[in-house]
Design brief:
This protein has 230 residues and is of the alpha/beta class. It contains 9 helices and 8 strands. It has an 8-stranded parallel beta sheet with strand order 7-6-5-4-3-2-1-8. The radius of gyration is 18 Å and the shape is globular.
């Protein structure tokens, strides 16, 4: 019986992702005090339905997406899978309603007006508040000094503040400060998740208390050109 090219490609993809996940689990185990408590979020930016299906087949149940249009298209394309979808991108006012329809968790909330709109559209929605350590206006996230007020405001509005998310600076010393401060803020304000660490810095994040790492390239390989949804 001849194996079709599509079947062969799918088998190769699954073998690669399974092997990469084994390596990821080992990296986490070496650096986390409680590896079983660290969730791997499969980040699907520019990847397609095939990668999502393979992620599910190797036991990953949480998927993260950076763009609202891709989030909704990919969720629809894989609606038969039992997945939890995280929206990781910055929130644009005109897309919040769509993001809420397609995501189970909005992970990059950073402003009071976003909290208010989310609450008005979906009472009790689950969110993460994003922390920014760059101080640059073009980067998404709230300053560490603003996090307490945002968390309190979200709770007054009845939102479920699941955790804090951070994208660490490239400099290792700055990254260490970002991760340790985010973990301390999460503990201080009683949020349960610390979404810290990506493909290149997950070891440091795990050492400093991450409960969730967001992984794309180290799971699926090099990213294809943006916009491919096949």
């Amino acid at each position: 019986m001849t194996t079709s090219p599509a079947s062969s490609a799918r088998h190769e993809l699954e073998a690669r992702v399974r092997a990469n996940l084994t390596v990821l689990r080992a990296r986490i185990a070496e650096h986390s005090a409680d590896p079983s408590a660290v969730r791997v979020v499969a980040v699907t930016k520019t990847f397609g339905a095939a990668e999502i299906e393979v992620a599910a087949s190797v036991g990953l149940t949480t998927v993260g997406e950076n763009y609202v249009d891709e989030l909704c298209e990919k969720r629809e394309a894989t609606s038969d899978l039992a997945l939890t979808w995280h929206y990781l991108g910055a929130l644009q006012s005109n897309k919040i309603a769509r993001a809420l329809r397609c995501a189970d968790v909005l992970c990059a909330v950073a402003r009071a007006k976003e909290l208010e709109k989310i609450s008005s559209l979906k009472p009790g929605a689950t969110i993460d508040v994003q922390v920014d350590f760059t101080g640059e206006g073009r980067r998404n996230g709230a300053a560490p000094s603003e996090i307490g007020a945002l968390v309190r405001h979200a709770r007054v509005l009845g939102l479920d503040v699941r955790g804090l998310m951070v994208v660490a600076p490239k400099d290792p010393n700055a990254a260490s400060t970002a991760f340790s401060t985010t973990a301390s803020l999460a503990e201080a304000f009683g949020v349960r998740e610390r979404s810290m660490g990506m493909s290149e810095d997950l070891e440091l994040a795990c050492e400093l208390g991450s409960t969730e790492v967001r992984i794309g390239r180290a799971l699926f390989g090099p990213r294809p050109p943006a916009g491919r949804l096949a």
